[in-house]
Amino acid sequence: MIQIRDEIASDVAARERLLDACFGPGRFLKSSQRLREGRLPAEGLALAATDDESRLVGTVRLWDVETGCGRPALLLGPLAVDPALQGAGLGGRLMRAALARAAGLGHAAVLLVGDAPYYARFGFAPEKAAALFMPGPFERERFLGLELTPGALAGAAGTLRPTGAPDIVPLVAQGAVGADAAAARRQAA
Ligand SMILES: CC(C)(COP(=O)(O)OP(=O)(O)OC[C@H]1O[C@@H](n2cnc3c(N)ncnc32)[C@H](O)[C@@H]1OP(=O)(O)O)[C@@H](O)C(=O)NCCC(=O)NCCS
């Protein structure tokens, strides 16, 4: 049976292999990456799906951002499912788990860049991101928003900025910061 749980430090290598398999090296060039690099995922919003042998078969993470007008939101992605298991409902399970978790944590809105025909089933729509911009090239019809709280994206405008906690591992490695908990979170990011 596939289980969905919080990502842990020992998932990182398998997660990166899965993302390479699903997106290739071009994944690091996406504008979304500009909002993720050097940051930790939003607290409690890095999820992993594992099979009976504890093999990682799915991943989704969300990131703290704010709109150009200072409205807080989450950026969702990447979402990926092991190619051998695609089409069996796991992507949907991961999305629903992530969105329920985000709502439970009090987040009001989620944005992403992805295939609208897939994400529409979860309520994402380009209209919700119509006045927003990514910090780099993006395809307008793939830039989607979802309000977890009605009206959360009403009037939201401008270019997204990252607001997540910084990834402080380089500082920890240099002995400049002694934050074991943050280091552990980073390993799981
Ligand atoms: C996209 C992805 C996460 C979906 O996960 P999944 O477990 O295969 O999806 P589910 O089984 O929950 O849903 C399957 C349905 O989604 C549809 N679907 C899958 N990928 C789609 C896409 N890119 N665009 C439109 N529809 C898509 C399938 O046709 C199927 O439709 P149906 O329910 O009408 O039969 C997975 O296919 C994947 O990892 N793809 C490669 C990475 C990727 O492209 N990720 C981000 C998408 S922008």
Molecular structure report:
This protein is globular. Strands 1, 2, 3, 4, 5, 7 and 9 form a seven-stranded mixed beta sheet that branches. 26% of the residues lie in helices and 24% in strands. It has a single domain, classed as 3-Layer(aba) Sandwich (Aminopeptidase). With 189 residues, the chain is an alpha+beta fold. It has six helices and nine strands; from the N terminus they run βααβββαβαββββαα. The relative contact order is 0.19. The structure holds coenzyme A.
What's the SSE blueprint?
Layout: E1 3-6, H1 12-23, H2 31-36, E2 46-50, E3 56-66, E4 72-81, H3 90-104, E5 109-113, H4 116-119, E6 132-133, E7 143-147, E8 158-159, E9 161-162, H5 169-173, H6 180-187
Bound molecules: coenzyme A.
Coenzyme A binds at residues 22, 79-81, 86-92, 114-115, 117-118.
